[in-house]
Amino acid sequence: MQENELKKAELDGAIADSFSYPELSLFSSYSHIDPRPGVRKEILPGMAPLELNMGRNDMFSHGAQLRYILYEGGRRSHLQEASKQMKEASRWLLLDRRRTVQFDVRRAYLTILLLKEMEHLATDNLDRHRRRSADADRAFKAGTIARLELLRAQAEEEDARIAVDEAADRKRTGLRQFAILLNVKDLPDPIGDLQRASEQAMHFDVALLRAEEPEFARLMAVSFQRRASEEAAEAKKAESLPTVVTGVKAAQVNPYLGDKRYGTEYSAFLQLSYPIFDSGRSEAVYERAKIDAQNAALQADELERTLKAQYDLLIERIESGRRTILSRKVGVERAKLALEAAQVAHKNGSIDLSRLLDAEVLLLKSEVEFLRSTAEFYENLADWERWSGRSSGQFEIFNKSKP
């Protein structure tokens, strides 16, 4: 749609430029005159002239006219400038749209990577719970645990199986949505590794983002739209000024000089028109155009404040996301140590199966939050690239698959 808007702006520019060139047109006219036109002619000296009815009631004229506007109060120049500004605005809007599409694709891509990791974690969790359920069944038969612990282990296994199915369904749905977004039928499994990307994210220097000067495409578009509105208002104001038009005309006219035959008539004209009274229409049109220009200026100012505030907030979220990844990484490492200690303690009989299951659930939760934080970090980074128009250079890592 934005490409069509750019084409419309280019056509508006061609229309505005056309007023600077002469206009050639063909015409054909017919008129009926009653009474018939005549001439007064003196036949004999000293006698009253005779009224000779020599004309025709029906008059025809066919020809061509070349017309050029010499002066129109500057309306043409304002229209041309307005069209140029709108063309630039459409170009920036198209750029903003492309950046938005790129962001949507990256967000969907990161979602798929996260869903793949969730499916992998769910599968590993199911394998652990299967082993725990089998151990619980043997322990119950040996009489070393109560039936309650056996039932919990079996329930945890069933929940883990459901989680695997749900993770697989979410991944398939995400892949379909990604295919729809890219308008393709067969979508290969995207490569990329959030685990590796998390290591890069933890060492990312957010100061690099603050050093970049943002290029807000939407703000640039609104700024050009504001200038176009101002020029359009001036063009409307010029409509109340005089207009001077010149031209030449050649026509075949009947009757020609009182004769019945057609004859060629050449003429040149210079026309001055000045609007005197139109019931306030011109003034109302100009006032309306001024209000449009004022609204465009207010929108530009408001958008500038909003974008700058969102931009600063986005950088803060990226910095917060980096710290969150560091914290989540520590949480995963501690959860792994806790699980290893719980496995040893359970093997020695110092804790029951429930405590071991709690340690496994803690590890799973820590890994999920760690990967989700990584995906959110890169999603915010993609959002920063969309708004700023700059490259962070951090997405190249996703072009590599797992080693």
Automatic annotation (TrEMBL):
GO cellular component: cell outer membrane; efflux pump complex
Keyword vocabulary terms for this entry: Cell outer membrane, Membrane, Transmembrane, Transmembrane beta strand, Transport
Subcellular location: Cell outer membrane
GO molecular function list: efflux transmembrane transporter activity; porin activity
Domain of life: Bacteria
Matching InterPro entries: OMP_efflux (IPR003423), TolC-like (IPR051906)
Primary site of residence: membrane
Family (UniProt): Belongs to the outer membrane factor (OMF) (TC 1.B.17) family.
PANTHER family (UniProt xref): OUTER MEMBRANE PROTEIN TOLC
Protein name (record): Outer membrane efflux protein
Source organism of this protein record: Leptonema illini DSM 21528
